[in-house]
Amino acid sequence: MPTEIERVFREEYGRAVAVLVRVLGDIDLAEEAVQDAFAEAVKRWPDAGAPPSPAGWIITTARNRAIDRLRREAARADKHAQAALLHAQEDEPYEEGPVRDDRLRLIFTCCHPSLAPAARVALTLRLLGGLTTAEIARAFLVPEPTMAQRLVRAKRKIRDAGIPYRVPREADLPDRLRGVLAVLYLVFNEGYAASAGSELVRDDLCDEAVRLGRLLVELMPDEPEAVGLLALMLLTASRRPARTGAGGTLVPLAEQDRSRWDRALIAEGQELVRRCLRRGRPGPYQIQAAINAVHSDAAVAAETDWRQIVRLYDQLMALAPSSVVALNRAVAVAETEGPEPALALVDALAGDLDTYYVLHAVRADLLRRLGRAGEAAEAYQRAAGLTENAAERAYLTARI
């Protein structure tokens, strides 16, 4: 039964909090009520068995507990409790269903532009993902008290600034959706290539980002960039089994055993890319997904259609130019035109990306291919000194 409760917690926590935020109008109270309901489930379900609708039971129990608490506080002339109690009692009875709007409202509340980017990520993982404060702190390598304060400040800002619990108006949606997608992609990237620590890949963060990406597509099926981001994450995640070797060592894309790639994720991701193409409304996440689809088409690295990848990067540079995109394009140019023209492109980016270890790693590999071993070793050393991830540092040091 504990395993069943854990499953329900992971799957339904965000949904329950979203409903309770609407019912109570208070994020802290909603979170506490849902946690109380799960604590009650731990006591009751092992003996009585799980109810037919676990999500409905959790939400109803949480709502009742919160109303009981508000009644006690309202009796002491607590004006805030009186107002929240009135709000809660006016709400319609909960009925089992997809509650699409509640979760969507909570996603946009967590990712409101007035909140700092780090706070958006933390709130999204806490309220929608159900991760504990300790889990989020470990994921981003900060002390638990620091993360707890970050979450408290974010929720206080939502309350004090009157940040609305709603989906933005249609005119505001494109800009706000970009922020939501950026948060989910940041969570995924931190899982796929951890910025620090001993592990190269954090499976828990990758899986949580994919789960939230699926939720967003379910809630907004007509937004092609949401579909594109999900496709990008699935296609990238498909390579996880082959990305590390014995002892957790890094295996670069060109050297991976592609028979270990997850074909089910590839098939799903490629179908989503085709769905995006049919819409004819290209965006940055859709193009990145298409690039990864090209990689997934090649049974071995030598069969990769690099010319198609260069064309896609050209399109991405036209839509969303950045130095990192230009660096990735240079990697593709090295495969179509050779390392020398690619090196010229990389050197032109050194001013913008001098502290980005990937630039120095790419430059080192190009120098190695040109036979400039001494310069390559220096570039690998520079790259190794800039990464905080032990697996990446070990790989780069070994290349020297």
Automatic annotation (TrEMBL):
- Signal peptide boundaries: none
Q: Domain named RNA polymerase sigma factor 70 region 4 type: which ranges?
A: 107-158
Ranges that cross the membrane: none
Q: Which residues form the RNA polymerase sigma-70 region domain?
A: 9-74
Decide whether keyword Transport is in the record. Answer: no
What Gene3D superfamilies does its record include? 1.10.1740.10, Tetratricopeptide repeat domain (1.25.40.10), Winged helix-like DNA-binding domain superfamily/Winged helix DNA-binding domain (1.10.10.10)
Please name one Pfam family that this protein belongs to.
Answer: DUF6596
One GO term in the molecular function aspect is: DNA binding
- Name the keywords, alphabetized: Sigma factor, Transcription, Transcription regulation
| All residue ranges annotated as the DUF6596 domain in the record | 176-276
An individual GO BP term: DNA-templated transcription initiation
Q: Which family does it belong to?
A: Belongs to the sigma-70 factor family. ECF subfamily.
Which NCBIfam families is this protein grouped with? sigma70-ECF
What is this protein identified as?
RNA polymerase sigma factor
Q: Give the originating organism.
A: Streptomyces coryli
Higher taxonomy: Bacteria, Bacillati, Actinomycetota, Actinomycetes, Kitasatosporales
